[in-house]
Amino acid sequence: MWLNYHHLYYFFRIAEEESVSIAARKLHLSQPTLSSQLKQLEEHLQVKLFDRLGRKLLLTEDGRVVHRYARNIFGLGNELQAVLKGSSPSYELRLRIGVTVSLPKLVTFKTLMPVHQVSQEVKIECYEGKRETLLSKLGSHDLDLVLADAPFTAEVAVKAFNHRLGSSQICFYGTPSVLKNLKGRSPDAIRQAPFILPTSNTMIRRACDTWFEAQGFTPSVVAEFEDSALLKTYGSEGYGLFPAAAVVEKEIKSNYGVERALLLEGVKEEFFAISLERKVSHPAIVAITSGAKHSLR
What we know:
Number of strands: 10
Mean pLDDT: 88
Order of helices and strands: HHHEEHEHEHEEHEHEHEHEH
Helix content: 40-55%
Strand content: 15-25%
CATH architecture of the largest domain: 3-Layer(aba) Sandwich
CATH superfamily of the largest domain: Periplasmic binding protein-like II
Shape: elongated
CATH topology of the largest domain: D-Maltodextrin-Binding Protein, domain 2
Strand order of the largest sheet: 4-3-5-10-6-9
Radius of gyration: 25 Å
Largest sheet: 6 strands, mixed
Number of helices: 11
């Protein structure tokens, strides 16, 4: 079956304008002609591409998929013409990433660095939010990838796949003033220390609670934060010890003026990329999953 790229281009322009009449005017076509071309494309693909909301046309879930591919197809066409004319290609590959609020910002930064080594220019759009919200957006193709500190499970009705990026041991860190009051760097020595911990809905908090229970003491918690950067900022002011991934220890020490208090034996934080593809094909996502083997260990 041969895809009619004229019809696909007309669909692409309608989607960009959110209106058949506006797209028809800009394409110098009659509205009935353009509507007919769109209908033929829908019949060929056997999907509905738009829903109408008032005067606007909104892409359906299938429509968003087709629009994403159409944007890449016609972007590559523009790049081809530019290259043949000896010009620098203006086509820009876009990567839309969702990052859970509990994922350490420094880990996210390390994870995204390989994207800038891709030969093609990549524009990163990064959104932060609740895990369930981001997974729903992934399922509706509003995101290409979700970065998280826990693997995808069936909590959201989306067919997605986990790509394990790596893991890191967890340490407690604190300012020199906090560490000065400790009687050493052992589990017994930190029993009386104040703690700043992630909220209970995060994987790292659950891991810390398991460790506290194994050590036989209940920590004195002065504050809890879901946002990992805010947690570290609070910790940098000397309010207590806080947990963080050892894989970014150098950056944590430099950025927040803290030192390691204790390595939590047997406690690790894992990092995952979640996509709709079992085998990723997006060049930037391939760079992320491949680069993590070296940066997140």
